[in-house]
Each structure stands twice: as C-alpha cells, then as structure tokens.
Amino acid sequence: MWTREKESVLVESLVDAVARHRSPASGVEADVYRLSAQLLKTRHRSAAEFLDASARQFYEQSASVPRSFPQVVSDGLVADVPRLRQLLEKRMSGVRSW
Q1: Which pLDDT band, with edges at 50, 70 and 90, does 1 fall under?
Q2: How many CA atoms lie within 13 A of 69 on its CB side?
Q3: Cα–Cα dist 1/30, whole Å
Q4: Is the pTM higher than 0.90?
Q5: What is the CB neighbour count within 10 angstroms for residue 21?
Q6: Interaxial angle between packed helices 45-62 and 4-20, expressed in degrees from 0 to 180 and rounded to the nearest 10
Q7: What is the pLDDT of residues 61-79, one digit of tens each?
Q8: Domain limits of the chain?
Q9: Can you spell out the DSSP letters for the chain?
C-alpha cells in the first residue's frame, strides 16, 4: 500500500542521492532514478542528468534491463507520477510540502 510516509521517504532518498552523488544500489532504485530524471529534466537539469547517468551506469554494470515507465508504476515503485514530479520539483527548490 502506498502511503504519504513511503512517498516522503522516496522523495528524500532521491534528493539525498543527488546531493551526495549516490548511485542506485538496486534495479528498483535505478528504475526510480530513471523515471525521476525524466520528471526533473525541464526545471532541474543537473539533477536529472545525474539521476539518468547513474541509472544508465547501473544497468550497464549489472547487465540488467530497465523497466518501462508504466511498469514502474504498475509494479508499485511509484504511485502517482504527477504528484512525484510536483514534490521533487519543490524539494529540489528547497521547499518542503508535506
């Protein structure tokens, strides 16, 4: 079940990953990084570039295949893509909204 707490942890984890240049530790994280990069590419280009490059590097090193974006949602890794975009953009701009 998707909760606001789980959503908050996800957003903070992504913000921390960008701030600390932390690579994804799993395919799940790489899939979320990749989706988040697409959501951030207009307003937070450097964060998006880092997340995308980190995800690509993970896939190359692990020889795994990324999930499609619809599959990321259907697998429950992200529940609400527009809301994730809004929360990430606000948080990357230094605003806490929950």
Answers
A1: confident
A2: 10
A3: 21
A4: yes
A5: 8
A6: 90
A7: 999 999 999 999 999 999 9
A8: 4-18+26-92
A9: ---HHHHHHHHHHHHHHHHHTPPPSSHHHHHHHHHHHHHHTTT-HHHHHHHHHHHHHHHHHHT--PPPHHHHHHTTS-S-HHHHHHHHHHHHTT----
